[in-house]
What does this fold into?
Amino acid sequence: MAKIIYVECNGTEHSIEVPEGWNLMDGAVRNDVPGILGECGGSCACATCHLFVDPAWFDRLPAPELMERDLLECTAADRQANSRLGCQVKVTAALDGMVVRLPDRQT
It folds into this structure.
């Protein structure tokens, strides 16, 4: 398990133990973290699991694949350089303590 800290746009933090192999969207949705919708169920088709990875952690993640980059560019509201789709980031033990911030709205 890895502890992931989800920070709502209002600053409220949710420290969640997320099993390895789940993705960031799973960790949020299955633990009722407000701000992540995951409408497509994690199939990289909607961008409603858009989040911002803390800059200290961003470069530790594998680069996003083409489909994720396209969705972020065309669909995600308020995209930033550290934007990712939560459904595309697999949780590993190496991510223990990672902080992600949630946008004030999803697409």
